[in-house]
């Protein structure tokens, strides 16, 4: 009787085992959460510090190369517009295509070789983006030309062809301005031009053309770039006017020359 009672008292309760498991899980989970939060905090701190370093570098580049026209705080002067709110995409387009810094005042900035490295352009874009919200540099997935070319062709004809020509060959505008040729422009710069509306171009925000529609337009233009005219001379892809002039000048010229030659042979 005594031994049986003693054995019952020495037996561990099932709840004790459950309690030990719960305590162990809570201890392990708490340690993991603490470690993860510390690691994430370190990563976040590093990212913020890296971003701020890029902004600081961009500010220095801006002050030494752009502030003469746009002001030290990018608020604009009589020589150049304010850049607050234009976003990193505008900087990447203007500086990446060499249009800025502008060599001389004119009807519009000319495209020329870029004067800065990609890292410097990225830093200046980060600085301008820190001054106010604006369009960001697009992701590669929107500019790699893997959209719907047929849909892009229709969108381009409706929204862009009246200035740039249906084949993206460009065209003249008023007062010495022009719509540039798009047959050698990168997908990234085409997207940025649509998003920011440089110079004479209207802004196509995401309500006018969604990011996917912009990607389709880029796909169409890349198709045109990669597939040259299979029928012979494209004549600048300027359409029926150029083709008509070619027929009148060279076709009729050939007929007149042949007539004169035949007449001379007869005499």
TrEMBL record:
Keyword ATP-binding found: no
Signal sequence region: 1-41
Annotated positions binding heme c 2: 160, 163-164
Key words, A-Z: Cell membrane, Electron transport, Heme, Iron, Membrane, Metal-binding, Repeat, Respiratory chain, Signal, Translocase, Transmembrane, Transmembrane helix, Transport
InterPro entries per UniProt: bc1_cytC-su, Cyt_c-like_dom, Cyt_c-like_dom_sf, Cytochrome_c_Oxidase_Subunit
Single annotated GO MF: iron ion binding
Transmembrane segments: 245-264
A Pfam cross-reference name: Cytochrom_C
Sequence positions that bind heme c 1: 66, 69-70
A cellular component term, taken from the record's GO annotations: plasma membrane
PROSITE patterns: CYTC (PS51007)
EC number: 7.1.1.8
Membrane-protein topology: Multi-pass membrane protein
Residue stretches making up the Cytochrome c domain: 53-132, 147-225
Main location: membrane
Localization (cell): Cell membrane
Subunit-structure text: The cytochrome bc1 complex is composed of a cytochrome b (QcrB), the Rieske iron-sulfur protein (QcrA) and a diheme cytochrome c (QcrC) subunit.
The protein's name: Cytochrome bc1 complex cytochrome c subunit
Species this protein is from: Curtobacterium citreum
């Amino acid at each position: 009787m005594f031994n049986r009672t003693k054995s019952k008292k020495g037996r561990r309760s099932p709840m004790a085992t459950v309690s030990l498991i719960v305590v162990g899980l809570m201890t392990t989970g708490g340690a993991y959460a603490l470690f993860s939060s510390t690691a994430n905090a370190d990563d976040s701190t590093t990212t913020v510090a890296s971003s701020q370093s890029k902004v600081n570098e961009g500010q220095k580049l801006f002050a030494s190369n752009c502030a003469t026209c746009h002001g030290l705080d990018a608020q604009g002067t009589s020589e150049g517009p304010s850049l607050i709110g234009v976003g990193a995409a505008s900087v990447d387009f203007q500086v990446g295509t060499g249009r800025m810094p502008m060599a001389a005042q004119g009807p519009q900035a000319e495209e020329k070789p870029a004067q800065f490295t990609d890292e410097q352009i990225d830093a200046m874009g980060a600085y301008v983006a820190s001054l106010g919200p604006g369009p960001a540099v697009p992701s590669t997935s929107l500019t790699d030309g893997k959209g719907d070319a047929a849909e892009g062709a229709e969108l381009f004809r409706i929204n862009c062809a009246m200035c740039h020509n249906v084949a993206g060959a460009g065209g003249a505008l008023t007062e010495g301005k022009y719509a540039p040729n798009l047959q050698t422009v990168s997908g990234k710069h085409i997207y940025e031009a649509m998003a920011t509306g440089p110079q004479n171009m209207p802004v196509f925000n995401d309500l006018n053309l969604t990011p996917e529609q912009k990607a389709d337009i880029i796909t169409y233009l890349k198709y045109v770039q990669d597939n040259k005219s299979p029928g012979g001379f494209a004549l600048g892809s300027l359409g029926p006017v150029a083709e008509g002039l070619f027929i009148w000048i060279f076709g009729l010229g050939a007929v007149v020359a042949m007539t004169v030659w035949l007449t001379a042979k007869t005499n």
